[in-house]
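Hello, quick one for you while I still have it in my head. No rush at all, and the record is pasted right below.
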Amino acid sequence: MSVRILALVGSLRAGSHNRQLAEAAAKHAPSGVEIELYEGLAEVPFYNEDIDVEGGVPAAAARLREVAGQADAFLLFSPEYNGTMPAVLKNAIDWLSRPFGVGAVSGKPVAVVGTAFGQYGGVWAQDDARKSVGIAGGVVLEDVKLSIPGSVTRFAETHPADDAEVVTALAEVLGKVYSAASAAA
């Protein structure tokens, strides 16, 4: 069985270590796992019920929902901004949660991972993302965690795809997401 995982990266920064982590996951994805790194979160407007109406959903938000609807599972990559997840990631979750109960994330496995400069690797942000996407209807894989501390120094000269420890950890994460998505199908 082939599993399509949509990767949402919570950092818009050029050279983002979380983007690089997502690239590493895509590069080292096991057979049967296809990872799509979503492009375009920067264009999705802040969620507003006034514009989330039939015929009025902004094109960028409609595209996000369409692509997410085709995914079997989600892998969220979250840095930590001021002790929580970035607004761009929260905004994506908000758009994907609607319509409530049948949003594109509803009932699908979701894992949250990431890297941050701090000594804990962004665990607070990742915990907040898990909480939010769970309330949005995603099936949060609570036992799938990967928080890589010291991103600025660790990945200063090494791409995560070339870090053997990171590649091994990502393989474990992807294996668990694959199993959850296969079981849900």
The longest strand covers residues 139-148. The chain has a mean pLDDT of 97. The CA atoms of residues 21 and 123 lie 15 Å apart. Residues 164-184 form the longest helix (21 residues).
